[in-house]
Amino acid sequence: MSHPLLLSRRIKPLASLTLAALLAVGCSTPIVAVAPEPAAAPAAPLRASNRSSVVQAAEQLDAIVLAGLTKAGQTANPSATDQQFVRRIYLDAIGRIPTRAEVEAFLADAAPDRRGRLVDRLLSSPGYTMQMFNWLADTLRVKDRIGKRQAMSFLFQDWLETQLTANRPWDQMVRAMLTADGSLADSGAAGFLLRDAQMPLDGVSNLLTTFLGADVGCAQCHDHPRGEWSQKNFYEMAAFFGASDGYHEEYKSQLKKMARKEQIPANTKDAQRALYPLLYRMVDLRRNDLTYPEDYKYENAKAGASVRPALIAWRPEDRRQTAYQIEISDPGHLRDAFARWLTHPDNPRFAAAIANRLWKKAFGIAVQEPVTNLDDPAEASNPELLSALAARMKHVGFDLREFQRVLFNTAAYQRGASVTPDPAQGPYLFAGPIVRRMTAEQAWDSILTLAVGPRIDGIFLRRGDEMRKYALEGDELSPEAVRAVLARLQADGGYGKKAAKRGKTLHYIGGTPETRGRLVLARASELPQPAPETHFLREFGQSDRMVSNDSTTDGSVPQVMSLMNGPIQELVTDRRNYVLSDAAKAAGDEARLRALWLSFFGRAPHRDEQAQAAAGLRAGLGVADLAWVLLNHREFLFVH
C-alpha cells in the first residue's frame, strides 16, 4: 500500500511502493535522547573576548546542568553528531536550514573548535538579525498596523532591526522603548508604547509580563488568586505611565476645525485618514491622571482616588537593592524612573526573564515555565541554573548575542536531542535540547533556502521612510504643519485611499525578491507583520500579534495539504530552483541523492534510504519527486 502522502502526486505505482518503503526507513531513524555569501548589511563585530572565556562560561553552566541531572539520578544524552549540530545551529542562530554547500564546508573542517567557530560566524551574519527579529516580533507583538485607526508602525520595525544589527544591549533597547517621545512618524522606539496607546493599562500588563515575567494579568481587575500581586500593586505600577499620553483623540476635532476654516483641504475624510498616524504621539504631561477604578472594592485604596506610583518588590530585601533607590516624584519623568528601575542590573527579575526566554529559544523548554511567570524562581526546574543564567546575562552587559554565544557553546546544547518530556514525570533537567517542530518562520525561511538559496539573507525590507512623510515640523498640530504633511503625501501620489494602498507597498534594499505565483520569496522578517491569514506563515502557526508569544507549532491537516499540493510543493519541485539545480550538477545518482539529503536534512542518506531512493530513480522517479517526498517527510520540519 502506498504511503498516504504519495496519493496527491502522479507517480507510477511501482515508484509509490518504493517511496513508501523509503519513508518507512526514514521514520525509523533513531533520534538520540557553496554558495557565495549574499550581500549583507554590516553586523556589529562579536565581542573581543577570546574563545577560552566563552568556553569557560559554557563549562560553568554545564557543571550546573550535570549536577541537576546527577541529583535526579539522570544522565546526559550523548553528543549530537556533526550533521545534527550543523542543521540545529543554523535553525537556532539564523533561522533557516543550511545549504548542501554549507553543510559540506562544516563537515570538511577538521579543526577541533569548528563548532565554536561556526557559531561565531553565524551570529555575525545578517541571518542572525532576521531570526532575532522574528523571535522578538512574536514577543513584542509587532504589527504593521496598530490601533483602531490602523496606523502604520513601519518605523518601529526598522528601528528594531537596526538595534539587532548593531547588537545594542537588551537593557538599552528596553530603556529606549519605555522612555521614547515622539510619533509613529519620527520615533521608531516610541512605536512600542504606541502599540497600546489606546489601551494603556493592557500595555502595562504586557510589558510587565514581557520584561519581568510578572504574572499580572489577573491583577488588572482584582487581586491575583494564586500570586502575590494585588490590584493595588498593578495600579501603582501603571501609575508610572499615568502622566503619559500616546493617543490624541482631540486631534480629530482640531483637523475638522482647520477644514471648516479652509486652513487645510476641505476633503476632511481623506485628510483625516491620511493623518491618522499623527494621532499617535508619546508625550509626558504635568500630572499623573491615573485613578483607581470606580468599582475598586478593597480597603487599601479608595475607588476613584488618584494613584501614587510605587515599585513592586517580590521579597522585603529587594527594596535594599540599588535599583529601588530612584526618585519617582516628578510626573514629567515617571517613565524614566520606571525604566531605570526595570533595566537596572539589581532588578530582581529583569536579567532572569530575558535569560530564561533565550534558554527556551535554544533548548525548546525554559528553566522556569511558563516564561510569563517568574514570580517565584524557586519553582524553576533548576533554580541554581536560572540564577547562573541571570548572572551571565548581567556579566555580558545584556548582550543577547554574546549570551547566546555561550549557550550554543555548552555541551548541553550540543548533545543529542530528547523527545518532548512528560511533565507528569517531573521537571525536564536538560539532558540535551528537546526535539521540536520548526516555527512557522523557520519553516518558511528553510523552504525558501531550498528554492532560492542563501541569497535570501541579503534582501531587506525597509518601510520606515514611508512613515517619515507623516512627521510634523515641530510638536504642534498647526495648519502649516498639517499642510506640509499633506503636500508631501500629494507629491508622492496622493492621500486617502491612495495612501492606504501605498502603505501596503514593500520597499526592499539589497535586491528585489522573486515573486512566484502570489508568493514573495523574501524571508519572514522581511514580509508584512504578521503575514495575511491565508499565507503559509499563518497557516503554520505565526501569531496574529494580538497577544505576546501566541505563535504555535501545533500540526493541522491544512499544513499537510499545503506541503503536498499547491504553491509550496511547486516551489520545491520546480527544476529551476536552487536545490534541484544544485543536485543536477552532481555526477551520478549517488551524488545527487547525497546532495538532496544534505540539503533537506543536513545529513547523507542512510544505506537503506540510498538503496530505496536509487531503486525509485531506476523505476522512473524524478529528482523533483524525491524532493517532494523529502519535503513531506516529518524529519524536515523538526529541529533535532
Q: Record the strand order, biggest sheet.
A: 3-5-4
- Approximately how much helix is present in the residues? 40-55%
Largest sheet: 3 strands, antiparallel
Overall outline? globular
Mean pLDDT: 89
Percent range for β-strand residues: under 5%
Number of strands: 11
Radius of gyration: 27 Å
Number of helices: 28
- Tell me the span between the first and last alpha carbons: 29 Å
Structural class: mainly alpha
Poorly predicted regions: 1-40
How would you sum up this structure, described in words?
The strands form 5 sheets. Strands 3-5-4 form a 3-stranded antiparallel beta sheet. A two-stranded antiparallel sheet has the order 1-2. The model is unreliable at 1-40 (pLDDT under 50). The longest helix is centred in the N-terminal third of the chain and has 21 residues, at 51-71. It contains 28 helices and 11 strands. By secondary structure, the protein is mainly alpha-helical. It has helices at 13-27, 51-71, 82-94, 100-107, 114-123, 126-140, 154-165, 170-179, 191-194, 200-212, 231-238, 250-260, 268-274, 334-343, 350-363, 383-395, 400-408, 440-452, 464-468, 479-491, 497-502, 536-539, 557-564, 567-573, 578-584, 589-601, 607-618, 623-632; strands spanning 145-146, 151-152, 182-183, 244-247, 280-284, 436-437, 460-461, 508-509, 515-516, 519-520, 638-639. Helix content is 45%, strand content 4%.
Describe the structure in brief.
The chain is mainly alpha-helical and 640 residues long. It has helices spanning 13-27, 51-71, 82-94, 100-107, 114-123, 126-140, 154-165, 170-179, 191-194, 200-212, 231-238, 250-260, 268-274, 334-343, 350-363, 383-395, 400-408, 440-452, 464-468, 479-491, 497-502, 536-539, 557-564, 567-573, 578-584, 589-601, 607-618, 623-632; strands spanning 145-146, 151-152, 182-183, 244-247, 280-284, 436-437, 460-461, 508-509, 515-516, 519-520, 638-639.
